[in-house]
């Protein structure tokens, strides 16, 4: 009969009081050998310890086996306990309508958190079961059933794009997964982002994505907001949606590579269209779209000169609700040939992004608030820097004079600097935000920027109060010099610091609250010394929001501040 736990403990209780005899302790303190009598006693005690150890190990094995058996039984009981908890879970008593609202909130939060830089529309990826309603449905059958039958809107905002993590690149059931998602979205309006750059060595990806695109086209009557990044050979398939997009409100279309010539009539019949943004369309393509409800329009492509300028002037004149317009030509004919065309007026347009001098000179925009001069080339896509045409600043000045508008924001990206810069700023007393950015710096720009710093520092005495002469309402100033190569930037010096200080320390509002200064490139130097840098940084203690970034890729070059 096996011993009880108490008997085992009592049997080995003597160990806690066991000690060595005195003669053993003395031997342990020296290197002397034991006497014959001591050796006999030692061997006897040693054998006794070995026997006690064996008995103790036997009892430990017994207890370990018992513990393992009990742990197995514990795991089994815990499994039963979890089953009871699941069966008695309060979530089972939540009415389906409440479950539906919980899932809707969870789905909306997930979509908001999944936005990516540069994208207008985001949603869960239909090919990833770790996202969106696919993922929520793995919680329990109750949630899964609610998602499949009661929450069509959670399946209606999606991304159709092959995830980079896929191995192989496309799941066998990719098309079927999209078909299931569209089915569960029922008749709900569709908002989706579709990205496919075209055929590669993996043939199954090409077949799957083409079928997915065709499947989305068959549901065009439900399109509400769509963002399409397509290869050239898929663009013609958009002809199938013509007259079948009555619900379309926002459309963003980008051709991933060189598009073949051909007109685009897909959006010609779209009665609810408010936003149409186009990028990298063929220079010769004619694109038809309705004007009635259009609020925001953008077309960025390498135009053949001003070929479509008259057409887009007609858009400006004929679109009663248009508030934002981006018409940016780049890549060809940067020096525009003047042409004669009657000026057009828009009493709704408030935001403009452009680069064509002829286009700007032909408009009167009395409500204009926000202007960006840029060619909208894409450095991230490997495109080279494309400067604005030489006459862009002068054309902007002319447009502002004839429009008599109150501009509050001005952004200049890779403009060809001339004295027109100061002329423009002199007629903008209400300007609050001014940014100027260069990815291709020319040495002759330095003198223009020095003049700008001087003019921004000048003050007038009006009714016993000091006011800055140029852009007195300025609150935010940004200067970004990127891609500098072995040059000296002299306008970034102590005079620049003093200008910032004068606008920061104004006795009354408005005053400068934010400054961005980037100087980046290789082998550059500038007029700052260490004291200037410290003074600029100290302005943060006075409330200035400062973004001061210096990056010299040539480690062997020292600036003047060293």
Radius of gyration: 37 Å
Strand neighbour order, sheet with most strands = 1-2-3-4-5-6-7-8-10-12-13-14-17-19-21
Helix-strand category: alpha/beta
Give me the oligomer status.
single chain
3D shape: extended
Q: Please state roughly what percent of the residues sit in beta strands, choosing from under 5%, 5-15%, 15-25%, 25-35%, 35-45% or over 45%.
A: 15-25%
State the share of residues found in helices, binned by percent.
Answer: 25-40%
Query: What average pLDDT do the residues reach?
Result: 87
Q: pLDDT under 50 segments (min length 5)?
A: 557-562
- The total beta strand count reads 21
Query: What is the makeup of the main sheet?
Result: 15 strands, parallel
**Count of separate DSSP helical elements:** 15
Q: N-to-C terminal Cα separation, in Å?
A: 89 Å
